[in-house]
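Need a sequence for this fold. Nothing fancy.
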């Protein structure tokens, strides 16, 4: 095959050894869309989950679910966790619901949300009228239930696709675990994928929910030797020798991601799959991830390396312009770096909600992030905090970068963290607010600001840990020159 700009492991490629999972999807979709005399029957909510280590094809199955759902005329809403963004409260919920809400004008949106508007507005990334009101987290969760219920009824049949849930924020995971059982009478199918070994402690309720669903989750196993041979021969030709294909299986461990990537590389090098080509095959297999990937990246030039590092610092789906600003390269260099990284199958067009670019696989993004020298990573996170806020993404997007840098007594960092905490409190995410304010105290703040921050910290813990609130208030009162009325 002639070499060219090839996309990475995509949903359009053949799904091997995933018949059971696809049958489960088809069965759930058929039940969701079944009608009696043209009238939708009383639907029963279903939950289909795929679990397995990185590279097992979970994202490809989620993409297959999207294709099958769209073919049946379902409305699809999707969201995807990102490793560097799991601390952003309600990020996954926003990705899931915002596209449907964005299609409504202001009047329609306020009518749709009704009395829940100011309760859920900040959690959904909308502008609340009453910015002084701090909603109860339980009320926010109830409001989100209402929003999703209305969407399910309005856009039935509805399919929710949730990928990489191991990186979902705690607030979204908590909402999902509580909402899914309540959706029993809604025309809705939930499809979720995650790495079980990487699920955070706060995902316990979600795990319990999944385990109650009989044969769920569908645990994905590595491919056998015959399937890897089929992937290789699809790219290099049917004449590839059995021994060569078996060695490809050994080199990739049966990982679908690695097998497809290796097969593409073999085709680009015009490898025919003969025994004498095994040394080259092993070199190409080593370059798919780990040290081999980093070596391949550095061969693309310094500007491209800095751009890739900046993309890894931003994480998830990112704006090429922001990455260029962080990497301190011009527009022409940014375009060239993007082309090189796409040609190397390191970057790809974003497949999730939103637009922009993303790493072709989370394994690639993690490897490149780890490659950034520690001192430079700190500087890039500092720069990222500045550029994302300047670009209008708000204090919470900036503050998550500040959590990755050492404390340095910077008043501007303290103010950003406090602003993020206020936004989280208005969103009904007090635990996230506590993280921001705890970090602000560690910066540390100016002495004259310490008591006020302790008071704000006490407010953030009032609904989740009252004993901590008392402690923070006492500490605030002990600060020099504090007016006792501050803590009333």
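Here you go.
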């Amino acid at each position: 095959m002639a070499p060219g700009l090839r996309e990475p492991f995509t949903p359009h490629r053949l799904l091997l050894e995933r018949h059971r999972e696809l049958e489960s999807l088809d069965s759930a979709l058929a039940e969701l869309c079944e009608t009696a005399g043209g009238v939708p029957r009383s639907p029963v909510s279903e939950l289909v989950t795929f679990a397995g280590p990185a590279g097992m094809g979970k994202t490809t199955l989620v993409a297959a679910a999207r294709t099958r759902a769209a073919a049946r005329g379902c409305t699809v809403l999707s969201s995807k966790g990102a490793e560097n963004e799991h601390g952003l409260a309600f990020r996954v919920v926003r990705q899931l619901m915002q596209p449907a809400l964005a299609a409504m004008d202001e009047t329609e949106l306020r009518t749709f949300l009704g009395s829940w508007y100011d309760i859920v507005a900040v959690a959904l990334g909308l502008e609340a009228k009453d910015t002084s009101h701090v909603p109860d987290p339980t009320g926010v969760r109830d409001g989100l239930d209402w929003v999703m219920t209305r969407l399910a009824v309005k856009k039935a049949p509805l399919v929710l696709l949730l990928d990489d849930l191991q990186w979902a924020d705690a607030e979204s995971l908590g909402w999902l675990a509580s909402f899914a059982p309540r959706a029993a009478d809604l025309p809705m199918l939930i499809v979720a994928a995650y790495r079980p070994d990487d699920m955070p402690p706060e995902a316990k309720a979600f795990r319990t929910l999944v385990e109650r669903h009989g044969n769920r989750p569908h645990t994905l196993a590595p491919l056998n030797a015959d399937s890897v041979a089929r992937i290789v021969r699809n790219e290099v030709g049917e004449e590839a020798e059995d021994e060569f294909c078996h060695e490809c299986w050994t080199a990739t461990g049966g990982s679908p991601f690695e097998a497809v990537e290796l097969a593409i590389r073999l085709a680009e090098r015009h490898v025919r799959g003969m025994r004498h080509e095994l040394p080259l095959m092993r070199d190409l297999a080593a370059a798919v991830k780990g040290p081999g990937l980093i070596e391949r990246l550095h061969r693309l030039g310094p500007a491209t390396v800095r751009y890739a590092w900046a993309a890894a610092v931003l994480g998830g789906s990112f704006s090429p312009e922001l990455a260029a600003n962080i990497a301190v390269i011009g527009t022409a260099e940014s375009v060239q770096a993007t082309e090189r990284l796409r040609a190397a199958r390191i970057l790809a067009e974003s497949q999730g909600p939103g637009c922009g670019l993303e790493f072709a696989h989370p394994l690639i993004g993690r490897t490149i992030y780890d490659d950034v020298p520690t001192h430079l990573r700190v500087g890039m996170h500092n720069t990222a905090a500045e550029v994302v806020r300047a670009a209008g993404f708000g204090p919470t997007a900036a503050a998550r970068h500040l959590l990755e840098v050492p404390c340095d007594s910077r008043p501007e960092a303290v103010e950003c963290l406090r602003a993020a905490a206020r936004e989280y409190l208005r969103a009904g995410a007090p635990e996230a607010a506590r993280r921001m304010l705890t970090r602000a105290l560690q910066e540390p703040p100016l002495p004259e600001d310490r008591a006020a921050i302790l008071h704000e910290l006490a407010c953030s813990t009032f609904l989740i840990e009252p004993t901590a609130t008392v402690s923070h208030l006492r500490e605030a009162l002990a600060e020099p020159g504090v007016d006792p009325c501050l803590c009333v």
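For context: The chain has four domains: 19-219, 225-288, 294-372, 404-487.
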